Amino acid sequence: MTIEALAPSPASIPIRNRLTESRWLPVTMVLAAIVLIWYVGAVWLNAGLVEQRLEQSETKATAAEFIGTALALDRPLLPAPHQVAEEFYDSVFTRDVTSPRSLVYHAEITGSATLLGFALGTVLGIVLAVGIVSWRTLDRSLLPWIIASQTIPILAIAPMIIVVLGNIGLTGLVPKAVISMYLCFFPITIGMVKGLRSPDPLQLDLMRTYSATPSQVFWKLRWPASVAFLFASLKVAIAISLVGAIVGELPTGAQGGLGARLLSGSYYGQTIQIWAALFMAALLGMVLVALVGVVERMTLRRMGAKP
Questions:
Q1: Helices 271-302 and 81-93: angle between axes, nearest 10 degrees
Q2: Where does residue 182 fall: left (phi above 0), alpha (psi -120 to 50 degrees), or beta otherwise?
Q3: Fewest CB within a 10 Å sphere: which of 34, 145, 161, 281?
């Protein structure tokens, strides 16, 4: 056999590598377009501030100098991407994680409230779904109220929750977790109701033929069928739980948390700080959703699902 015969041909290149390259190309192009539009928007929105500065100093600037000044303002209306990246790097990697100026410190506080609210919302959502599926009375009486509860603006109800819980001695982490629970239990309830009702009628008839008890029908048929629906709901719920934790920090005057970081930035006009905190919140949300995805893959693999 010759060396040429042993050499890999173009057709033998793994298809997975080709798919990966083709998948990342559109993402890169979209990201580049977003950054370009962001820079243009920063120059456009900050142009008024630059003109005021030039009028006060009675100086003239070339186009390049004008653009450079618009992208280097200390308190711009819209910070440039590199300004946000510098603030993010400084707040994450150059600060002590126990310092109030560290985004890691604030993310830990918000993340704790998010996880506690998510856990409470998960338990509440599953319990409500099981009750709705098991008893027709709850289906007709409770489900409409669950849906109606989500029509109340969270910004209106969050201060009420904080005041009520504060009067009974519950402060700090618990009120924010309750607000997170209020937001995230709804998708879990609806998803679990859909999942528990997803088995085919023929499968239910087969279980009755085997003289299965209601408990056996639930654990051997309804619950396994609902797992996929549950994890789809959990991914939505944990992202909403993060939003609830941030919103819960706004009316409390808290000194820690991403919501407090956003609020202090708005008080002092630190738009770069605000955008860095927003990116940390987005990164935290992606990490939490990814963790739910990891648990989902592990669970489905244990249940015998194919990867």
A1: 70
A2: alpha
A3: 145
